[in-house]
UniProtKB/TrEMBL annotation:
Signal peptide: none annotated. It holds the Pfam family SusD-like_3. Residues 340-518 form the RagB/SusD domain. Belongs to the SusD family. One of its GO terms (cellular component) is cell outer membrane. InterPro entries: SusD-like_N, SusD_RagB_dom, TPR-like_helical_dom_sf. It is found in: Cell outer membrane. This is Putative outer membrane starch-binding protein.
Length: 521
């Protein structure tokens, strides 16, 4: 538990995060702080359960929180990968991440720890208190508990991959709780809870998809397949049996999608991936919800440094921009690297809808909202309500292809899953018979790097694989010793984990020692 941030977490839902019930997108996001509630009279009626789960969802938005000048929290998971660099160099904490010299004081590290444990605390309140609400519809109760367990599992999944052995808290906490100063729990036990939570969520009666943005069965199953895939690799190294679990779970989603292509599918164009009207639909299995009435999309640090690409005029910071070597690593003809077609733009329109001009370099436009920012001849709304993707069907396909290959080499279904990703990019895929298990593995991983880049996923691939894509050789290096193009610095063994925030170590002696290689208190 984050000792410095959730001493009074029992009051968080009541005074900081309580939301109205889920009735459409707007009420899903609106926050209130009702004055007539206290810890003693909350969670007494079904509406309190809805407010509690809404508060838990709202906690996902910590990733878009402020991390100092020209920076937001999500950049933690981009700066370390080496696929991005910065044009501004104004933020010392962000510079430390790019330079691989971060420590327990780095604000992004601290904010991720605090944000994840706040989310976990709110999920714990829902899981503990909702079963006791009288006269509540049983199906509604089960569904809300399933959503809470999906959110708790997802938070712990992020945390255990970032810090390794971490405090495992499953009950609401207060200053008098017996484990208010918790010890660190082994990664094995943390993963056990993650699997238990996701299995419970899977059985909670969730719909396969949910356009309101709530957790759904396709997202739960894909997340569980990703957990199994991670457990198969480092650091648990559970191997073939877990690759089989990952493949089977991802295949369940693919099988449903094949039978229901209007519900789950790949978008036909890359522009559709970041089209505001496509939020929570088709390829987007789960997203963090944004609406400017509460919080607007937080990804504008990808935009060029004060170049007039939005209807508001110059405004981006360029504090996360692609490294030239990564952009150049896309195959010739790959639509994902084609200007104003794929995930990178090299030109745009002055103030969003004016004359076209050169940006002078490729920039990440994967999270660029044309509706809000404008497009050729069309003014923007200035209301950036675009969601941030967390789980896309493209990832489901790639999980299946990778896991199935590890089970017994590439089969037709694994090949077809990878080929769907390449077909959309207008790339030719060599025949199935031309691949060995090793060459197919590398081909799938290259697609992960090129398809899922800049979605805060690449770092986790690097850690579980202990491999890093080398964008100059088109091969893969060992994690330790790989030179990050963004800093020209080598990754070290210690970088496989983040440092525990220094203030946590100071306030909670039961955490004992810092992660290896980082300065202690």
């Amino acid at each position: 538990m984050a000792h410095t941030t959730i001493k009074h977490i029992g009051r968080a839902v009541l005074f900081g995060f309580a939301l109205t019930s889920f009735v459409g997108c707007k009420t899903f996001l609106e926050e209130q702080a009702p004055s007539n509630l206290s810890p003693n009279n909350f969670y007494t009626i079904p509406d309190h359960a809805e407010a509690g789960i809404a508060a838990t969802y709202s906690g996902l938005r910590f990733m878009g929180g402020d991390a100092g000048i020209f920076s937001t929290n999500w950049q933690l998971l981009e700066a370390l990968t080496g696929t991005s660099t910065t044009e501004t160099a104004q933020n010392s904490d962000l510079n430390n991440l790019y330079g691989l010299v971060h420590d327990g004081n780095t604000v992004h590290v601290v904010n991720y720890w605090n944000g994840l444990y706040r989310l976990i605390a709110n999920a714990n309140l829902v899981i503990a208190r909702v079963p006791g609400i009288p006269q509540m519809d049983a199906a509604q109760r089960t569904k809300i508990l399933g959503e809470a367990r999906f959110l708790r599992a997802s938070a712990y999944f992020t945390a255990v991959r970032l810090w390794g052995d971490i405090p495992l808290i499953t009950q609401p906490q207060s200053a008098v709780s017996a484990d208010f100063m918790p010890v660190r729990t082994s990664q094995e036990d943390v993963y056990k809870l993650i699997v238990e939570d996701l299995t419970a969520a899977e059985a909670a009666g969730l719909a396969w998809t949910d356009v309101s943005g709530r957790a759904n069965l396709a997202a739960v199953k894909t997340q569980l397949s990703k957990v199994y895939l991670t457990m198969a690799g480092f650091p648990l190294s559970k191997g073939a049996s877990y690759y089989k679990l990952a493949a089977d779970k991802a295949l369940e989603v693919i099988t449903y999608a094949n039978a229901n292509p209007s519900s789950i599918n790949l978008f036909s164009t890359y522009d559709d991936v970041h089209r505001e009207s496509n939020k929570n639909r088709l390829e987007h299995l789960f997203m963090i919800q944004y609406n400017t009435s509460v919080a607007g999309n937080p990804m504008d640090n990808f935009y060029p440094n004060f170049k007039p690409v939005t209807y508001n005029g110059p405004g981006g910071t360029g504090s996360s921009v692609p490294t030239g070597s990564f952009y150049n690593s896309y195959e010739s003809g790959d639509l994902r690297a084609k200007d104003q077609v794929g995930y990178f733009y090299t030109t745009y329109y002055t103030n969003g809808n004016g004359a076209q001009f050169s940006l002078g370099a490729p920039y990440v436009f994967k999270h660029f909202n044309r509706t809000a920012n404008g497009t050729s001849g069309v003014a923007g709304t200035r209301q950036n309500n675009l969601n941030v993707p967390q789980i896309r069907f493209a990832e489901t396909l790639l999980i299946y292809a990778e896991a199935q290959n590890e089970v017994g080499g590439p089969n037709q279904a694994a090949y077809d899953a990878m080929k769907r990703i390449r077909d959309r990019a207008a790339l030719t895929t060599p025949a199935l018979g031309s691949f060995t298990q090793a060459t197919f593995r590398d081909a799938v991983l290259r697609e992960r790097w090129h398809e899922l880049c800049y979605e805060q996923l690449t770092w986790f691939d690097m850690v579980r694989l202990r491999k890093v894509y080398n964008d100059k050789t088109n091969g893969f290096d060992n994690f330790v010793g790989h030179i990050n193009p963004s800093s020209n610095q080598a990754l070290q063994e210690k970088h496989l984990l983040l440092p525990i925030p220094r203030q946590e170590l100071l306030n909670n002696p039961n955490l004992k020692t810092q992660n290896p290689g980082y300065p202690g208190v």
